[in-house]
Amino acid sequence: MTQKFDVIVIGAGPGGYVAAIKAAQLGLKTAVIEKYKGKEGKLALGGTCLNVGCIPSKALLDSSYKFHEAHESFKLHGISTGEVAMDVPTMVARKDQIVKNLTGGVASLIKANGVTLFEGHGKLLAGKKVEITAADGSTQVLDAENVILASGSKPVEIPPAPVDQDVIVDSTGALDFQSVPGKLGVIGAGVIGLELSSVWARLGTEVTVLEAMDKFLPAVDEQVAKEAQKILTKQGLKILLGARVTGTEVNGKQVTVKFTDAEGEKSLTFDKLIVAVGRRPVTTDLLAADSGVTMDERGFIYVDDYCATSVPGVYAIGDVVRGAMLAHKASEEGVMVAERIAGHKAQMNYDLIPAVIYTHPEIATVGKTEQALKAEGVAVNVGVFPFAASGRAMAANDTAGFVKVIADAKTDRVLGVHVIGPSAAELVQQGAIAMEFGSSAEDLGMMVFSHPALSEALHEAALAVSGHAIHIANRKK
């Protein structure tokens, strides 16, 4: 007999495994299907984020920043050391162990919550049937009342720079370098490109970032983006804007990259080249022709505000649908869908999804940017507080950047919080909580913040919206 489930989830990434666990917690008979195998050739849950994305990149970012601090900042604190060296294979092995621990943790959570796990490729057939193809080619079909498509995304490939995972690598290959490259080229000055550039620049690599767009971080608040470009350039990243890659030529262990910019045709030679030009949804062989689910020309699945597809009882979440390709967005969509399947009236606030770039200093944002609000004709008041005026930041020798709070000029409601600086991700989350409850800048200004703490910078920026900051001179209105 065909096995039947209340919910079948295709994909066990941060959207899929969270959806499956939540559905099981709500009393629904749930299955999840995953095919990804890790380095050891065994099934590995957690998707791109856990295996070759968010988590391993943060492990390398933290390791490389500790090396940078030891190399550059210890003397300032009165700490003497011998010569500091980085053992790259050990750094990478530590990253791999963290990934292994966490993927194992997800498997334990799946089991503990009574979710049935199937290994193989999942495909949606007509009538909410799901076909699983195992590695040996054998197939089985499951029946479902509801199906959640959570197959994720993969790096975009570009014809001028074909990836060989040796000299030319994608974001996955860039996590496994076994030595520090002398010269590194990075195509793409987005989140992934900047984070990976930071890792290797801290370890002594000469890094050049080639960005086709003429504007740096166009989706980020302009004031923050301008500061980020200045700081990252000072850290040693050579950022070339308006640089469109036209071809690559691999010669032994080096690659020559041809590109055009405002001055014409140029070329540069690197030891390694990272292609980080974005990601695209994984929907290949996900849907049978008669499944009824519709996609756009880029492979994204059409869904409504509640992640329902064109087929009743079939949902899609995460990187295969509209919106930011962020793990936390996928997870919360998974929770919302599971809740709705269980008959609850859940929804998501898509206006308040924080986004973070884990360079140092971190760049984090929630809500709308000043330029977006001005384009909409919304009058705003802005408060900015620099970390250079924060006692806690000074004590930590981490004073680059600022906190920016944007409020509606008429209602004083906070419309955006943007941070570049230490613990930016955590500070922006405080802003997101305030905004979720409709806080005004005055509300934030009236709260008591601990001293000395980095979060005081958010407090002061909120006070600065109305020209009432205490620890900086306020701009005259």
Automatic annotation (TrEMBL):
Gene3D superfamilies: 3.30.390.30, FAD/NAD(P)-binding domain (3.50.50.60). It catalyses: N(6)-[(R)-dihydrolipoyl]-L-lysyl-[protein] + NAD(+) = N(6)-[(R)-lipoyl]-L-lysyl-[protein] + NADH + H(+). GO terms for cellular component: cytoplasm. One of its GO terms (biological process) is 2-oxoglutarate metabolic process. Residues 353-462 form the Pyridine nucleotide-disulphide oxidoreductase dimerisation domain. One of its GO terms (molecular function) is dihydrolipoyl dehydrogenase (NADH) activity. Homodimer. This is Dihydrolipoyl dehydrogenase. The lineage of its organism: Bacteria, Pseudomonadati, Pseudomonadota, Gammaproteobacteria, Pseudomonadales. The gene is lpdA.
